[in-house]
Design goal:
Elements: H1 6-30, H2 36-48, E1 55-60, E2 63-68, H3 69-86, E3 92-98, H4 104-112, E4 119-124, H5 127-138, E5 144-149, E6 166-172, H6 184-190, E7 196-202, H7 205-208, H8 219-225, H9 231-240, E8 244-255, E9 262-269
Parallel strand pairs: 3-4, 3-6, 4-5, 6-7
Antiparallel strand pairs: 1-2, 1-8, 7-9, 8-9
This protein binds S-adenosylmethionine.
Length: 270
């Protein structure tokens, strides 16, 4: 049975996936092309649109629709960007993605029109993810993006000490990687003195509505891949203790992979 432990994650992301992104970016930079949008699109073309089908069946807002793969990938990204931007206000000082990989979500969100002059942090476990993100950041001088090392199992938010304003935490299929998240992770966020909003895009539809959905996500698939099994129950516990309020829950909202589709959940400390 697969065990998503430290070695497994390092092999999958630090050694296999993110170095390919670094190589692609290096080639683009060496050719004299420093365009961030083109870099992100090249990554999509090379690594994300792997299907040889023209059309795929996806779930969007409970409806099954047939869409082109490019349309699905771009639409999904735009949806994520829009949801993050909707959380911004005039006091927002930083947007922080945790488990950020090569940083695509924050770079796209910035390009999509998120506040230009705030801080962006990509907190990532793997060195190669951080290098890839730093390479992307070097292509766009006006984005204030910083990669930092982070481990969900030992959460540390000391880097936020100098930030006093509103902050937004984002996760996109990264808590997925943590079979059992410790409640301490959320407690550290709740203890921050800042005004905080959190939004998760994670495959937890089956945790939210165990019996209602046959497609989108399932406990069986999560167990098979040793994906997260307790994100929703932790947040429910914190809500019952009145430590947080939940703003929005959209189970299995966008499912490009119908077995591991994305639910959206946003909350804030009360
Ligand atoms: C499926 S990828 C998603 C990356 C990014 N959020 C995205 O949407 O492109 C999962 C990411 O979680 C990171 N990750 C896995 N275990 C982690 C841990 N213990 N702490 C922080 N990040 C972790 C992996 O290195 C990887 O970059």
């Amino acid at each position: 049975m697969l065990q998503r432990n430290r070695n497994f994650v390092l092999r999958e992301y630090n050694e296999d996936k993110w170095p390919l992104v670094i190589d692609l970016l290096k080639k683009q930079k060496e050719s004299g092309d420093n365009n961030l949008t083109r870099a992100l699109n090249n990554i999509n073309k090379e690594f994300r649109n792997k299907s040889n089908k023209n059309f795929i069946d996806i779930i969007f807002d409970k409806q099954e629709v047939k869409l082109s793969v490019d349309f699905s990938i771009s639409g999904n990204q735009s949806f994520i960007c829009k949801k993050i931007i909707d959380k911004c206000n005039e006091k927002t000082e930083a947007i922080i993605e945790i488990g950020s990989g090569y940083g695509r979500n924050l770079f796209w969100t910035w390009l999509y029109g998120a506040p230009k002059n705030i801080k962006y942090f990509g907190l990532e476990f793997t060195k190669s993810g951080r290098i890839a993100a730093d390479t992307l950041a070097s292509m766009e001088k006006s984005i204030d993006y910083k990669s930092l090392s982070f481990n969900f199992y030992k959460p540390n938010f000391d880097f936020l000490n100098s930030i006093k304003g509103h902050i937004i935490f984002v996760t996109v299929h990264s808590i997925e990687q943590i079979p059992k998240l410790d409640i301490e992770f959320f407690k550290k966020i709740i203890e921050l003195k800042n005004n905080v909003d959190c939004i998760h895009f994670e495959p937890i539809g089956w945790q939210i509505k165990p019996n209602n959905f046959k497609k989108g996500s399932s406990q069986q698939y999560a167990k098979m891949n040793d994906y997260n099994t307790n994100l929703f129950s932790l947040l429910q516990k914190l809500k019952e203790k009145k430590l947080i309020s939940i703003q929005e829950i959209l189970p299995n909202f966008i499912c490009i992979n119908q077995k591991n589709g994305t639910s959206v959940l946003s909350w804030r400390p009360s």
